[in-house]
Structures are given as structure tokens and as C-alpha cells.
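We modelled each protein-ligand pair independently. The example shown here corresponds to the zinc ion entry; the chain sequence is given first, followed by the ligand as SMILES.
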Amino acid sequence: MTNNKLLLGVDLGGTKIEAALLNRDGEVVHRKRSPTPIDSYAGLLSKIRRLCEDLESSAGLSRPLPLGICTPGSPSPATGLMRNCNSTILNGQLLRADLESRCGRPVRIANDADCLVLSETSDGAGSSARSVFGVILGTGVGGGLFINGALLQGPNAVSGEWGHNRMPLERLPALPDQLLKPRPCYCGRLDCIETWLSGPGLALTHERLHREPINVEQLHSQQLDAKHRETLSAYTQMLAAALAGVINIVDPEVIVLGGGLSNIDVIYASMPDLLQAQVFSDISLTEVRAAQHGDSSGVRGAAWLW
Ligand SMILES: [Zn+2]
């Protein structure tokens, strides 16, 4: 098989590494997963190399493909060193150069939110739109911007990093008082959007409201109990307030939600009315859609980097 028909992507997650070969129609033709080594950076590089070579061998490829890799953080434009990774073994490493020398191929890096946006604008929930804000709602919260056919790459390489803006709690006067205790973020700030809208943030909201642990199965149930309904109502109000801040600046046609929490259906039903109340406009036409490619957005977006 000739190399120019396939794209190689790797999603470097906190618990697993996923590698995939895509054809130019966006279909995954080979896929392989392996646990992420958490205590050895050298072991991590070797694991990525082995996954790439195994896939190429499965596809009968004779020469190495360029590699796109999805990471939890991004390289600093000043130093090239990785930063903002919640898989902290990566922080401070020259990941792109190290991978190029270890794997013998050119490498491009993007964070998980940018990969979600690339995947969903290529052939997913944002494929017909000229402007898309993609959001990861998972262990962390991140965002990426796609404008007029390309990812927006600013001078600081932080475009879309909305998860570490402050949650506009003053716009949510209906939230119960017991919720409003400040939340410290790992980044050193208080009340980052991530501390409210991530999976751990949602769990903390439930605990503060009801003094009991959240039941994840309930979140996806067709018959929500009253406590989880109240938790999700608070969560959806906060999500709308936070997204309205993005709409007031970028005014995207579509917002695509990805990550584990984007699978909670009740988020979407109330979003148009909540956004209408929060956006600085007499009408809110931005559509909020669930990502179409689910857990594969990282590996697919990474492949589309080439
Ligand atoms: Zn933060």
C-alpha cells in the first residue's frame, strides 16, 4: 500500500495511548491501544514508536508516515517545552523533537481540544460551519477555535483555552449559596471554568448540593432522580454562562461539545434558552451540538494534522 493514502495519528491520554491509521475519507483502517507509562518519559517515547511501527506493519507500509499527536497540553512557543499537561510527566519535555528523533519521522502536535475541533470540522458535527468553537468537557476543560478553514493559532498558542478563564458566577444569581464556595484550580487561580465544568467539578457540585457522591449512571438515565436533575440544571446554567462569554467575543456558528460529559443528553435541550438569556444579543443562533466521533476525536484530529 502506498503511504500517501493513509494518515497516522496518536492520542496520548492519561491512562491509554491510542494510535490509528485513517484513510483520506476519515475512516479508521487500523487502530491499536496500549496503557500509558506513567513513570518513565523514555518508556513513553518507546511505546509510541512501537505503536506506530506495529500499525504500519499491519498496513504493509514500507516507509514511516509523518505523525500527528494529540496531547493534553501544548508546547510553549517560546521554548518548545511542553506545558499545561495534566499528565505531568510531559511538562518541561521537548516532546516533538524527542519523538522525531526516537521515531525517525516528522511530528506535529496539537492539544486535545484542537484535535476535537479538527476531527469534527473535517467530517463531524462542525463540518458545514465556517466558525466552530470545540470544547472538551472531561477530566479537564479545554477549547479550540476553527475559523475559515483552519485552526486559529495565536502568538501565545493558547487560543480557545477558555477552561482557565474565571466562571462568571455573578451571572448566575439563582445558584444555591452552598455551591458558591471558591474552588482552587491546579493552575493556581480560583474558580476557573474547569473547576466547575469538568467531571470532578460536576461531582463536587453534586456533593455540595446534596451531601452525597454523584451517581454517574444517573447522569445518563432517562429517568433522572430529583437530586441529579438539580445538579445537571446547575451545571447547564454554568455551561451556558461560560459559553456566552465565548459567543460574545467569537460569535461562532457552531459549538461542538466533546469529552465524557458531552454524552449527557439533558445538557442540550435547555441550552438555546439559557444562551439566549446570557448572550449580549436579542437572539442567539449559535448551535450547540454533541461531537459525532466520541472518544476517537483525539486520534482522528491528530491524524488530520497532516
Ligand atoms: Zn485554572
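The first strand starts at residue 6 and ends at 12.
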